[in-house]
Amino acid sequence: MRATPKVENDMHLNRRSFLRASAAAAGGLVVSLYLDLPTAARERNQVPPAKVYPPDAFVNIRPDGKIVIQVNRLEFGQGIHTGLPRVLADEMDADWTNVIAQLAPAADVYKDPIYGIQLVGGSGSTARSFQQYRELGAKTRAMLVAAAADRWRTTPDQCRTEASVVHGPAGQSATYAELASEAARQPVPTTVRLKNPTEFRLVGKPAKRLDSRPKCDGSLKFGLDLDLPGMKVAVVAHPPVFGGRVKSINDAEARRVEGVLDVFEIPLVRGTGVAIVADKFWPAKQARSRLKVEWDLSGVEAADTAELWSKYRKLGQSPGIVAATQGDPAAIDKIALSNRLVAEYEFPFLAHTPMEPLNTSVRFDGDAAEVWAGSQFQTGDQMAVAEVLGLKPEQVTFHTEMAGGGFGRRAVGDSHVQREAAVIAKRLRGTPIKLVWTREDDVQGGYYRPMHFHRIEVGIGPNGLPVAWRHVIVGQAINADGPFATVAITNGVDVTAVEGVADTNYAIPNFHASIHHPKVNVPVLWWRSVGNSHTAFVMETLIDELATRARMDPFAYRRKLLKPEAKKPLRVLDLLEQASARWRENLPRGHALGVSCHESFGTGVACAVDVSIENKRPRIHRATVAVDCGLAVNPLAVESQFQAGLAFGVSQLMAKGAITLKNGRVEQRNFDGYAPPYIMDAPVAVDVHIVKSVEAPTGCGEPPVPVISPAVVNALARLTGKRYRTLPLVSI
Amino acid sequence: MATYELNVNGQRKRVNVDPSTPLLWVLREELKLTGTKYGCGISACGACTVHVAGIATRSCVVPVSLIGNRPIVTIEGIGNDRVGRAVQDAWVEKDVVQCGYCQSGQIMSACALLKANPKPTDANIEESMGGNICRCGTYFRIREAIKSASGQLK
User: Would you say the ipTM is above 0.95?
Assistant: First the structure.
């Protein structure tokens, strides 16, 4: 049986946390956060898992004045490596110019305080660790102040702090570094006052990234750059159809490549494959191209895109499992055909293709192992490696490496890359091996955003607003059999497939949404913004079509239809309308406006684009976005996520933006067949407007993605009179 | 295997590799210059861009045997010249990077552009940067940084 971590069902845990402090071996204060077991687990009388306390769990004040802060998340572009240290440093009143951020290894203390596993997902890194990092900073500060007060024979309330210095009532001052050892002997406060938003010095102010310079001079090491003494490189030949098995291997030619050390069959999560280990990458790859493998594909479903579409279209004609229902589900049938709008949409499989190809390094030493991986899901990957190697998770030291993008691809419930690496390392005991997935492996290796078919029937009322809405979705359940099934599948509905439809912010009196979850032999996964990547496209293009039909302005129509409690969408629509007014009113001939508005991961976003058609492709001259993400912890990072996230979202519109299968085989191999946006495809200019707010921060990694493609095709519809319901956008 | 003498970032380097080995893997695995990145291996993404005799070159498809004595400059060496330094500084100033994996290649393409054309138009930028993928999508700030560096180079 495969060990998979389970997510606690109770998302609002009644948790207790306290700090432990100890003097660091090298001197200085070390603060650890201990998170108590979630209430739910305690109530089931589960034995608490062993807690691991790395010596410098979150904050280490070094004698040289540098403050090293551990980040409990993967950094893969989103800027959390700067953001969470800002939060902690603010409450601590640390000197920001002396803060160093590090990515924490896998350990209990670094698990998500709400989810209870170590991961990046659901755009929740800031949202779920904001309070945690504030408390850590405030408690660390309180201990430093208490140490200073003792030293000066005064009370903490007589002292103040600024930029890593405590000032006493009689003009005394001491740096945090000077006080660190004494502070370590102070009791850790159980409660601590946090700043009012008006007292923030760093939070809410724009800050540049801490990792910029090393990413601009080539010095930053990603997982793929790891080079350990004696390290070998492995590649794997995977079956041409998911789940295929090796029948026979002819490795004579492969072994003749100089530098090749070993060729052997390995088990995969699906089927079996052949591993090739060499001194370096190039001989490993050369050898793989000379390897002859006969595959056994018997009993393996050969998925075929064309066949899947006809199956999906058929399924979509009748309702599936109910995901949401309100009012009269049959109301649509009572509406005159002339007042009905019927639309069918198709969305292809999409690969994530992060720029750094997938990789993991492992060294197995018999009774311990070490792993280096840019992982979004350290807890699961550590458990998987441990299981393969016959170790306990705590015997596996798991280093979190900086990752070159991910977009969901590095958070895989079955840890298939790490399992491959561990199997190979087991055979080469004592030798560190780096498993590299080539770009071809990545494009052809599955774990795609699922294909989806949508069929919608809308009944339009006399005022032009929808009065009845019947919505059927067809698509694989990402969470079926995965570690998140208990929380993400409700009554047979994978909530990540219907999010954005089932929980729509539009007030439609008679609303019925249902889904079919076919089983298909293609592994699927969350792709940045998950279900919203297709549901927002459907909702926002249909709403636009309805507004056009009602001869109403896209802003006014949405405002009229949004539920009054949809505060964030209403705020961002208003802000967008103002912010885009100047260019909207001065659009050149041949250009058109497109608007969309969507809330996901708790963040409201509205987007307006200025689009023309050049060389038969959409040209996005400008995108203006309005965002309500609660308190913007780092406004510069929010702006950056939106500016670039829109470009990521354009992936869906690319002419070569689909993964297709023929007879079980993926038809694309690399960026020649599956092309993400290049500079000319992205919006030429993007301006981002953030709603001023002190509400709890919400995510900004995924919410930019859903809004751009519907906005662009809404503009195209104004230029061509056509509605675009099949992605990718092969022709206009 | 064959021995090659390469001029990399102004230094002479001797490597012993198979002649088919792409320059990318010689830089990364023999010379440990890992700032140059592997993204696709078919010259479709630009992550591996270096300068060979001053020309922006996709090192993933150029066998080491074809380099000869042409000087190679990588991301580790580009900061030694005025344009390279200005571009790297502009990238930091504009907070361009996100995951950062493609940015070595983006910077090398931008440097080649600005060396040839210190005052590029938007069309020039798209033409020169048109083969470099940034999956995070930082294209808008890349444009801004190139224009900023161009201003600095007056």
Answer: yes
